[in-house]
């Protein structure tokens, strides 16, 4: 069996930036074990598999360690591949079990805009010891949504400089940890740690901005925001809040394509 695979860098306009994803379009689902093995072999933040069902593209995402409920950058990368294969279309409908149906469209100047459910985090009463001991700098505020703990800092330098204790943060599974602060150059910046579910640090995490954007929109009093994920590779995201929908836009570039022979 031969499978076409495309490696796409998402949330960037140049290769070697943003977050890389492997995209595999298939006619029917492979076994879970095989998809997980392919993702482990690719060893990228995510490998996305997509099957067309009528007018809807069903999508699943796998890190090298496990299947992921919700992934933004690999969705952006999948849409990039589909838009380039089908140049006559400018919008797509995706479906994922944990997210439901959501729309992705071509926007202006090469951007791709994804419409995700609003996942604004909520404050928590008790901060887990594993989170306190898992970050080298104590956060000023901690919140939680379906995906991660939000560690909020008063200084963007804290976000850039904070270090994680992977063994401590693994104890928070199934939740990951995002650290964030307001920024002078951008509206806000973040970093994303996920040792229990994918790796040490995710380069750019589109899904968590479905929670970050509404949080900062309320804090800053503005519905349209520019964000930067301050990982080693880095990535730019443009976010807007429209009620229950968070729209997240970014660019993508193709790094390579090839054939997986199994």
Architecture overview:
This protein is 21% helix and 43% strand. It has 262 residues and is of the alpha+beta class. The chain folds into 2 domains: 130 residues, Diaminopimelate Epimerase, Chain A, domain 1; 126 residues, Diaminopimelate Epimerase, Chain A, domain 1 (Roll). The chain has an 18-stranded mixed sheet that branches. The N and C termini lie close together (5 Å).
Question: What attributes does this structure have?
Answer:
2 domains, 43% strand, 262 residues, 6 helices, alpha+beta, 18-stranded mixed beta sheet, Diaminopimelate Epimerase, Chain A, domain 1
The separation of the N and C termini measures 5 Å
Order of helices and strands: EEHEEEHEEEEHEEHHEEEHEEEE
Largest sheet: 18 strands, mixed
Number of strands: 18
Structural class: alpha+beta
Point out poorly predicted stretches. Answer: none
As a percent range, the share of strand residues is 35-45%
Please name the CATH architecture of the largest domain: Roll
User: How many distinct helices?
Assistant: 6
Number of domains: 2
Task: Please write the CATH class name of the largest domain.
Answer: Alpha Beta
Report Rg. 18 Å
Approximately how much helix is present in the residues? 10-25%
Estimate the global geometry from the Cα principal axes: globular
The CATH homologous superfamily of the largest domain is called Diaminopimelate Epimerase, Chain A, domain 1
Question: Quick check: average pLDDT?
Answer: 96
CATH fold-level assignment of the largest domain: Diaminopimelate Epimerase, Chain A, domain 1
């Amino acid at each position: 069996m031969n499978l076409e695979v495309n490696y796409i860098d998402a949330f960037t306009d140049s290769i070697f930036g943003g977050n890389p994803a492997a995209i595999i379009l298939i006619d029917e689902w492979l076994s879970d074990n095989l998809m997980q093995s392919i993702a482990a072999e690719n060893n990228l933040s995510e490998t996305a598999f997509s099957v067309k069902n009528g007018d809807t593209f069903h999508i699943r995402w796998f890190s090298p360690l496990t299947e992921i409920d919700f992934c933004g950058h690999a969705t952006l990368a999948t849409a990039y591949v589909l838009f380039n294969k089908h140049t006559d279309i400018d919008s797509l409908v995706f479906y994922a079990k944990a997210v439901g149906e959501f729309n992705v469209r071509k926007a202006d100047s090469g951007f791709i805009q994804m419409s995700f459910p609003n996942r604004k985090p909520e404050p928590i009463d008790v901060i887990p010891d594993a989170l306190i001991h898992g970050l080298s700098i104590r956060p000023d505020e901690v919140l939680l949504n379906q995906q991660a703990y939000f560690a909020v800092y008063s200084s963007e330098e804290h976000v850039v400089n904070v270090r994680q204790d992977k063994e401590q943060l693994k104890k928070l599974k199934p939740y990951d940890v995002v650290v964030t602060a307001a920024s002078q150059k951008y509206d806000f910046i973040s970093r994303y740690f996920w040792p229990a579910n994918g790796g040490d640090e995710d380069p750019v995490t589109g899904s968590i901005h479905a929670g970050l954007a509404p949080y900062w929109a309320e804090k800053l009093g503005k519905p349209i925001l520019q964000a930067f994920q301050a990982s080693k590779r880095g990535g730019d995201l443009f976010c807007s809040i429209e009620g229950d929908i968070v729209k997240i836009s970014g660019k993508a570039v193709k790094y390579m394509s090839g054939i997986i022979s199994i």
